[in-house]
Amino acid sequence: MATSPPKPATWTYSEAFVPEDEVLANARARAEEVGAVAIGSGGGAALRFLASVLDARAVVEIGTGAGVSGVWLLRGMRSDGVLTTVDIEAEHQRLARESYTEAGIAPQRVRTIAGAALDVLPRLTDAHYDIVFCDGDKVEYAAYLKEALRLLRPGGVVAFDNALWHDRVADPAQRDEETVAIRDLGRAVAEHEQLVPLLLPVGDGLLLAKKEWAPEDVQ
């Protein structure tokens, strides 16, 4: 029996099921001030849950914004976990550091790197990270996936925000560059032999994929 899509009230209830506190509200306000679009509360809660389930110690974030997603991730990570967050906008990272401080996160738990993601990611350590969260240039998502496969340890997870891209990805008539890039990414993730994919309809869509263990990784 097919299920009907959720009603707007149900959707709103689901998105707000894990409420945001004052710290996250302030971080979201900072993001709005500089035009950075932060992940929604439902997606943020999913990231925290994921970081907690994986007992994440090392996470890469592409797109710092003003720290909304970073705070969610850090709250789910181990107490000694380190978030490496990359953004081309140094001002966004300055605001993010304000958010981390307000959240009571120790400075040594966050490594901010100002620069273009595709310049920075190749310098990071292979197979070292538990999560790679991508919320940068949508046209570069396929390149982020390639880098994530190298950066993730076996069993790690790559996550992409805006996987539904304002309801455009599901509409084949929408052929703008960003929509096509995200649609192609979803197809590539779903068909990749080394990945276990999942598309969560939270916020603007959160695409997740677990990097499978290769036979040589299993002792």
From TrEMBL:
The keyword S-adenosyl-L-methionine applies. Pfam families: Methyltransf_3. InterPro entries: Cation-dep_OMT, SAM-dependent_MTases_sf, SAM_O-MeTrfase. One of its GO terms (biological process) is methylation. PROSITE patterns: SAM_OMT_I. The keyword Transferase applies. GO terms for molecular function: O-methyltransferase activity; S-adenosylmethionine-dependent methyltransferase activity. SUPFAM superfamilies: S-adenosyl-L-methionine-dependent methyltransferases. Keywords: Methyltransferase, S-adenosyl-L-methionine, Transferase. It comes from the Bacteria. This is O-methyltransferase. It comes from Nocardioides islandensis.
